Amino acid sequence: MAASLSLSPTTVSLVLNNSRGADSIPQATKDRVTAAAKQFNYRPDFTARLLRAKRSYSVGVMVPELSEGYASLVVAGIEETLMRRGYMYLATSHRHSARQLEVLPRLLWERSVEGLILVDTPSKLTVPLPVVAVSGHSQDDGVTNVILNHDLAAELGIRHLVQLGHRRIAVMKGQAFSSDTEIRWQAIERAARESGVPIDPRLVVQLHGDSPSPSTGYAAARALMKRRVEFTALFAFNDVSAFGAIRAFQESGLTVPQSVSVVGFDDIWGAAFHIPALTTIRQPLRRMGALAAETLLERIAEKGAVDYPRTLCVEPELVVRESTAAVPAKPVRASRSARPSTPPGGTAR
């Protein structure tokens, strides 16, 4: 085919394999190669390429679970970047199973992946691969952590509520297995204290269970109201738990934001379309996924160099919508009797 186009085999190979060197080839030449490949029904021999280069051009991606929300947005950023660079990925869900967390890295390594991306997943380095962890906080050698500036995120959320007049702020912590639970709680507690509105321990609840739905936030909000302690706002661990909390408040006769304001975290796709539209702290999730993929590919290209970034920090943004308002005249004290119902589906991180 190269001869028929009067091009060098190298040029044709770069175009057909979407290699990085193809960036310097004129688009008209690329179009000629692509048209000829279709005419001759050419299909690259990927197995031969792998054996020749001793490369798989694939990476492993581990997530707690894949559904609408945090993980899917991060993976979207990973996928976009990898495919643009000619890489594929093998994605697997561990669902917080200790056994899976131990076994899956080795299974991916045995399938010749060149590196691992962990999404909200504790690192268990049992394989000789470069690792990039999104929302990871491991200090292990070989791991690059892509993290959010949680101090700024907490400050943005607390300051917004304080400016609206809220002084009795409840906080919903994440599940114990989430990588961000403790660091986010510490940041919120610190921001509240520095703003002169320290968090009452009786207004702190934690999500339990690993259900990928708003049900965890729903249950935590009902438990909070049963304590009969005044509060005027809730800072939820994530958007999906905020959805569940809003449902629980509404069933108890409370309106959002007239009775209680709610701030979420993440800014998943559904946040803007929830009723009321959710005020939230936006994590640049797609960008975090893209940054993880870009960093891993750079580390793969460097072939085990010891000089690699240990931490990459991204910045959050406050998105104000309809679920927050000025403090009500009468604080929330207790729940009214309401029959529990099943909250709508979603994903809880």
Q: Can you describe what's shown?
A:
This protein folds into three domains: 43 residues; 123 residues, Rossmann fold, CATH 3.40.50.2300; 134 residues, Rossmann fold. Helices cover 38% and strands 15% of the residues. It has eleven helices and twelve strands. Strand 8, helix 10 and strand 9 form a beta-alpha-beta unit. It is elongated and about 80 Å long. The C terminus is likely disordered.
Task: Please summarize what this structure is.
The chain has 349 residues and is an alpha/beta fold. 38% of the residues lie in helices and 15% in strands.
Poorly predicted spans: 343-349
- Structural domains: how many: 3
Give me the CATH superfamily of the largest domain: Response regulator
- Compressed to H and E, one letter per element, the order equals HHHHEHEHEEEHEHEHEHEEHEE
Rg, Å, rounded:
24 Å
CATH topology of the largest domain: Rossmann fold
Which keywords apply here?
single chain, about 350 residues, alpha/beta, Rossmann fold, 6-stranded parallel β-sheet, 6-stranded mixed β-sheet, elongated, disordered C terminus
Secondary structure elements and pairings:
Elements: H1 2-5, H2 9-16, H3 27-39, H4 46-53, E1 58-63, H5 70-84, E2 88-93, H6 98-110, E3 116-119, E4 131-134, E5 143-148, H7 150-163, E6 169-173, H8 181-194, E7 204-206, H9 215-226, E8 233-235, H10 239-251, E9 261-266, E10 279-282, H11 285-301, E11 311-314, E12 317-319
Parallel strand pairs: 1-2, 1-3, 3-4, 4-5, 5-11, 6-7, 6-8, 8-9, 9-10
Antiparallel strand pairs: 10-12
Helix pairs in contact: 5-11, 7-8, 9-10
